[in-house]
């Protein structure tokens, strides 16, 4: 029998100081640019034991402007932007080709934090995508080699055959090129940091790009 969804939902809590450490956040003491704060917060959530803190919701819009979202892995963040990867022919790849603008949302419940990043998305040079893939695991290369991301799958057996062949190729030649595997870089216009508070006086600090390497900051009502 299925569980009672309403009862389960009512039994669950967020920003519960009994189970969650909710550190104070003083926006007045925050760095002048968002990457430094993102890096600081990332280090803190890793130290606090957040599982898979590098997984992030990637929101895109299709050619008609309808929204879509899925989880991807963050591959890096630097002056060129926040980077993630996928196949150019996948649904997200086609959406990004039609509308090269996206949003990322990180949720780090261990410290009651959320980070939102929005901005235009550029395709990194193919050498950067190759180097990125080379630095990852055999499994990541095998997944990339399996390809056909987001195409209809006829049967599990079809995937098993393609995946087995991809694992063999990945193990035999870790430098196998995967031309459709694409590294994307989101260069933020806006980055928002949210620190949850048990009394719901959540702190929201937003950075908006005001020039090259220059940011305005402001607070938002929670
Ligand atoms: C934890 C996790 C990490 C994932 N990482 C990636 C990733 O880095 N790149 C990717 O293309 N898909 C990744 N996926 C799969 C995507 O969520 C999605 O199923 C896939 O990219 C196809 O999405 P699309 O049809 O919108 O293109 C990940 C899924 C999960 C649950």
Automatic annotation (TrEMBL):
Keywords on record: Flavoprotein, FMN, Oxidoreductase
CC cofactor: FMN
Domain Pyridoxine 5'-phosphate oxidase dimerisation C-terminal: 181-222
Highest taxon of the lineage: Bacteria
Domain annotation Pyridoxamine 5'-phosphate oxidase N-terminal: ranges: 47-154
Stored InterPro entries: Pyridox_Oxase, Pyridox_Oxase_N, Pyridoxamine_oxidase_dimer_C, Split_barrel_FMN-bd
Keyword Disulfide bond tagged: no
GO biological process: pyridoxine biosynthetic process
Binding note for cofactor: Binds 1 FMN per subunit.
Residues annotated as binding FMN: 91-92, 114, 149-150, 204
A GO molecular-function descriptor: FMN binding
Family per similarity comment: Belongs to the pyridoxamine 5'-phosphate oxidase family.
Cited PANTHER family: PYRIDOXINE-5'-PHOSPHATE OXIDASE, PYRIDOXINE-5-PHOSPHATE OXIDASE
Protein name: Oxidase
Organism: Streptomyces fumanus
Taxonomic classification: Bacteria, Bacillati, Actinomycetota, Actinomycetes, Kitasatosporales
């Amino acid at each position: 029998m299925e569980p009672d969804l309403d009862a389960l939902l009512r039994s669950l809590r967020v920003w519960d100081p009994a189970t969650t450490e909710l550190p104070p956040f003083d926006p007045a003491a925050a760095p002048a640019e968002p990457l430094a704060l993102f890096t600081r917060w990332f280090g803190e959530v890793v130290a606090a034991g957040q599982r898979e803190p590098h997984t992030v919701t990637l929101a895109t819009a299709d050619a008609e402007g309808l929204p879509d979202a899925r989880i991807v892995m963050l591959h890096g963040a630097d002056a060129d932007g926040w980077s993630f990867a996928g196949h150019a022919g996948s649904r997200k790849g086609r959406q990004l080709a039609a509308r090269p603008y996206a949003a990322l949302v990180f949720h780090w419940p261990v410290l009651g934090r959320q980070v939102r990043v929005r901005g235009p998305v550029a395709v990194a040079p193919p050498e950067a995508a190759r180097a990125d893939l080379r630095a990852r695991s055999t499994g990541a290369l095998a997944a990339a080699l399996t390809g056909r991301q987001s195409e209809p799958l006829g049967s599990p057996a079809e995937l098993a055959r393609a995946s087995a062949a991809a694992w063999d190729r990945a193990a035999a030649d870790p430098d196998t090129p995967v031309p459709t595997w694409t590294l994307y870089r989101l260069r933020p216009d806006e980055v928002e940091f949210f620190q949850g508070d048990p009394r719901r006086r959540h702190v929201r600090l937003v950075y908006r790009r005001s020039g090259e390497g220059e940011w305005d900051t402001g607070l938002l009502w929670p």
